[in-house]
Amino acid sequence: MKIAIIGCGYWGTHLLRNFNQSEFWDLAGACDLDENQIKKVKNNYPNLYTTNSIDDILNIQGLDAIVISTPVFSHFEIAEKSLKKGINTWIEKPMTSNSEDAQKLIDLSIENNCIINIDHTYIYTPAVRKIKELITNGELGEILYYDSIRINLGLFQHDVNVIWDLAPHDISILNYLIDKKPTAVSATGSSVIKYNEKNLESIAYITIYYEDNTLAHLNVNWLSPLKIRQIIIGGSNKMLVFDDMAVSEKIKVYDTGVKLTNREDIYETLVQYRIGDMYSPALPNKEALKEEVDHFYNCIKNKKNTDTDAHSGLLVVQTIEAANKSLINGGAKIELL
Predict the structure, then answer these.
(1) Is residue 308 a part of any domain in this protein?
(2) Could you tell me if 119 and 308 are in contact, meaning their C-beta atoms sit under 8 angstroms apart?
(3) Is residue 163 domain-shared with residue 83, that is, in the same domain?
(4) Is the previous residue joined to 155 through a cis bond, with omega within 30 degrees of 0?
(5) Predicted local distance difference test score (pLDDT) of residue 259
C-alpha cells in the first residue's frame, strides 16, 4: 500500500524509517513546513518525493494512507482533509486538541469508510502486550489499582502542558489493559517554571475513578532529575511492576496479596499478608513501532479497527480534558460522560 508522512521532526524520522523498511508499505512522499527538515529527509531518502505542501501530499496518485506527525493543534485540520478524500489516517497522539474535533473525525471516518489509527505506540510494546495477556488470563485476579510514574528532565513543550504531553501514554495503556470505563477524573498540578511567558503546568498528579472502585493514579513531571517510566498494577491475586527503563526483567510479577478473614469468636477482621515468589516473564525482542506499522496495514487490508483506533483516541482526549478542567478548578472531581 502507498503511504506518505506529514511531519518529519523527531518522531517523524522514526516513522519514515519504519514505513520505508516495511515489506507492506510503499513510502510515497514526505512533507514538512521546515525546509531544514526536508533537507535532512532528502539526505536520508534521496529518491523520496518531498514537499512543503500538505495538499500536494494528499493529491499523490493512489495514496492509501497518510501519517500525521505534527503538533496537536494541527491534527484535526489535516485529518479532516485526508478523511474527506477517503484516505486511511494515522494520527500522532493525542488525537486532537479537544473531544469535539475527535468525534467529528470519527464521524468522517465512518462516512468515508476509512480507518483511523492513533499512534499510542506503547500498546504495541512486548511488555504491554504481555501484561494484557496476564490480566486477560486472570493471573493477577481482579484489578484493584494502577499507579504510574512518568517523569524526566524536559522536554518542555511550547504549546501544551505536561498532561497533554506525557499523560496520553499512561491513559492509553490504562484503557487498553483495564477493560473498564472511567467515570471521573481529578488532577492537581503547577507551572513551576514560566516557559516562554506561558503558564504551562510542568508537574501534575491525576487520579482516575472507576465504577467498581478501581483507582488509577498518574504522576507526570518535566522537572525530575531522574527519568522514570514505571507502572505498578495491584491485583486481588498477584501484583505486577513494569519498569520500562530496565534493560532486562522489565516486568516482575509478585505472588503477593492481602486476604481478609473473619472469625466467629472475635469481632475484628483479620488481615493476612501473603508474600510469595517473584518471576519475570520472557519478552520477545520486537520494535513496537514496526509492530504498529504492520498492524495498521493488516487492519486496512481486512477492514477492521486497529488496537488504538479513533474511539480509544477519543477516550484519551476526553480524560485529558477532564484532568485539565479539574486542574483549573483546584482538583475538583470531574465526571466523564
Answers:
(1) no
(2) yes
(3) no
(4) yes
(5) 62
Residue 77, C-alpha cell as written in the block: 485540520
CB 119 within 8 A of CB 38: no
Per-residue buried b or exposed e for 130-163, using 16+ beta carbons within 10 Å of the residue's own CB: bbbebbeeeebeebbebbbbbbbeeebbeebbbb
Q: How far apart are CA 53 and CA 100, in angstroms?
A: 27
How large a percentage of the chain has pLDDT more than 90? 86
Do 154 and 186 fall into the same domain? yes
3-state secondary structure of 139: coil
Q: Which helix (H) or strand (E) holds 275?
A: strand 270-279
76: closest CA among 88, 52, 94? 94
Confidence of residue 272 (pLDDT cuts 50, 70, 90): low
Q: What is the pLDDT of residue 261?
A: 56
Greater model confidence, 258 or 68: 68
Task: Give a yes or no: residue 294 inside a domain.
Answer: no
Angstrom distance (rounded) from CA 272 to CA 121: 39
- At residue 23, what are phi and psi to the nearest 5 degrees? -75, -15
CA-nearest of 251, 218, 217, 214 to 235 is 214
CA distance 154 to 127: 25
